[in-house]
Amino acid sequence: MAARGTTKRASAVAAPPSCSCFARFVFLASFLLLVALVYSAARPSIIPRYDDRLKDPPARRGDRRTCNYSDGSWIPEPETVPSRYDHTCKEIFKGWNCLGNRKINGRDLLRWRWQPSRCHLPRLDPLRFLHRFRDSNIGFVGDSLNRNMFASLVCMLRSASGEVRKWRPAGADRGFTFLNYNLTIAYHRTNLLVQYGRWSASDLGGPLELRGYKQGYRVDVDVPERSWAEAPGFHHILIFNTGHWWWAPSKFDPVQSPMLFFENGLPVLPPVTPEIGFSLALRHMILYVERRTTMDTMKFFRTQSPRHFEGGDWNLGGSCRRTQPLLPHEVEELFSTKNATNAEVRVINRHLYEVLHGTSFHILDITRMSELRADAHPSTTGGKMHEDCMHWCLPGLTDTWNDAFIATLEDQLEN
Ligand SMILES: *[C@@H]1O[C@H](CO)[C@@H](O)[C@H](O)[C@H]1NC(C)=O
Ligand SMILES: *[C@@H]1O[C@H](CO)[C@@H](O)[C@H](O)[C@H]1NC(C)=O
Ligand SMILES: *[C@@H]1O[C@H](CO)[C@@H](O)[C@H](O)[C@H]1NC(C)=O
User: Ligand 1: does its nearest atom lie under 6 Å from the Cβ of 368?
Assistant: First the structure.
């Protein structure tokens, strides 16, 4: 396991001043001080540092391991908390750049701090993170919501160390190695985790044809998509998600283009619903990952990220124009299973929890904190035909997901 607890040896410390030359020592000391001053002056507001107010008080560290980071509330700070990166980070997809696109509440987003009920959530300190996880590979595997989280982490780390090599390890869509730390972070794009493709009825007939299916998508529940199939052997830390595409009727229309599930190369009979296919695929992919990793590989599964369409779904004029987080009772209205538009989030989570129970995966539960943040989507600022109430502004909420991810990771490594 490369994620070792040691930080970098302070190799820059000068040799012991055994040399009689005291003046030389004084010279060296003042030179170092000067370098430190110039260095800190040259780097503006995004200097990576722990914000003292938010630092984990030592007396409360004991609580942390039993703390549920997912249970808490959003507290407004009197002023904007300095972000660890800004709108100039190149990894921010244009439509998510709410500061750059001047979203009306783009800056206010950074005023809200997540406060767990029984402990503090420490803010990820980019420099400390780079030191601690040197010589390791971290892979995000999933849909564009995992890319949103990946971009947040890359931006935080790049603000602390700009020397990177851009490349695509092990089938990744994008990736960076932080050269001074030999730390690689990659994003593997996959919508369903499993392989899928167009299917149409064969003239020779078959069990699906007999049931009247003419076309659809073949979804192989036991075959990982190629973009990430090699990732378990490459990364030391993995963070997965899937969910949005399973409930995407515009692509997988139940009548025009249904999902047709295959296992061992044969159709699952009788055909099952996407909800059941989702569980089947999850079970296979969890097993696939467990067989290809050791106990030392840290495996996370992120819970579903909620959408906040109000007044209709994404293609029916739905919008998300709020400028404040929701109140708890508003969350219940918007996400109750009675309310069709955004109800999938809880259904997906129920299956995730069921399948992940008893496996070696850690669950990163970001759903509750995110359900409250109806204000944190790009909305109209993305400049698309439809409002974006699914992805998140950057900087923004997924920075807090990463805080929770790293805090959970460190707690696990200490245990
Ligand atoms: C942690 O808090 C979340 C949000 O309130 C809750 O859904 C979950 O059940 C809690 N987890 C545990 C282990 O208590
Ligand atoms: C960089 O890290 C990898 C593990 O990710 C390790 O195998 C390799 O030896 C490291 N390279 C150096 C130069 O330390
Ligand atoms: C669904 O959510 C909307 C808010 O977008 C709310 O006005 C409505 O009452 C909710 N409907 C139900 C049945 O909960």
Answer: yes
